[in-house]
Amino acid sequence: MTFKERIDKYKKKSIGAKISDIIFIIFVAAMLTSSGRMAIGGFVNRIKAMIIAPSVNSEKNIIQLSETDYNWELQNINGKSINFSDYEGKVIFLNFWATWCPPCVGEMPEIQKLYNLYKNNNGIKFLLVTNEPISKAREFIKKREYDFPVFSSVISTPAVFKSSVIPTTFIISKKGEILVNETGATNWSGKTTTELIEKLLNKNNN
User: Fold this and answer.
1) Residue 120: CB partners within 8 Å, gap ≥ 6?
2) Which residues fall within 8 angstroms of residue 148, CB to CB, at 6 or more apart?
């Protein structure tokens, strides 16, 4: 088939088919750059984070934190040091993330929505922890206008929280029970999470 014949054949394609071809070309071009791959990955995981609800651990799979697990020094984006033990007796939303991680970026709008619901409630604390330089994390969240609390580890992360996958998110009860241990982009502002948090906030430590 000659080049002219190929052109004539393409002209006969439907508008829908031509649009599909254009989208495919844009997709391929975007995948050739790191920023393009990040944007596409973020978009795909944003959709996942709007759909996938977290799983709550069954009673037999609940892990109890020890005093050693609570002894964990962190630093916030303003350079202030805190200890994880400062939040013992609170409900804790703990998320491990990185600026280069598409699933992390994809679920952040849902985390921000959840934070907006509870940021004035002293019974729950949010900690989003990264191993990247805190200056990089600060620039990232400022650019995207997030205001949830971001930290970096000053010492090694307790073994109970270590994971080979990010994002990894934990929801911890006032009694130090890990009730949620979720990996991947997740719908954190949905009914499953809010009902669990409400239940934990209304439950005393006894």
Assistant:
1) none
2) 111, 112, 115, 119, 126, 128, 141
Q: What are residue 188's phi and psi, to 5 degrees?
A: -80, -15
Cα distance between residue 127 and residue 154, in whole Å: 14
Question: Each residue of 109-148: pLDDT tens digit?
Answer: 999 999 999 999 999 999 999 999 989 999 999 999 999 9
Say what the pTM is: 0.79
pLDDT more than 70, % of the chain: 75
Beta bridge mates, 83: 73
Contact predicate 98/131, CB 8 Å: yes
> 186 in a domain, yes or no?
yes
For the domain that residue 130 is a member of, what is the CATH number? 3.40.30.10
Strands 150-153 and 73-76: antiparallel
* Count of structural domains, the chain: 1
Output the pLDDT for position 12: 58
161 within 8 A of 155, measured Cβ to Cβ: no
Alpha carbon distance 87, 126 (integer Å): 10
Read off the pLDDT of residues 15-36 as tens digits, 9 standing for 90 and up.
655 455 444 444 444 445 555 4
DSSP 146: -
Domain that holds residue 85: 59-201
Q: Are 127 and 93 in contact (CB under 8 A)?
A: yes
In a domain, 7, yes or no: no
Between 4 and 64, the more confident residue is: 64
> How many angstroms separate the CA atoms of 110 and 189, rounded?
5
Domain for residue 50, yes or no? no
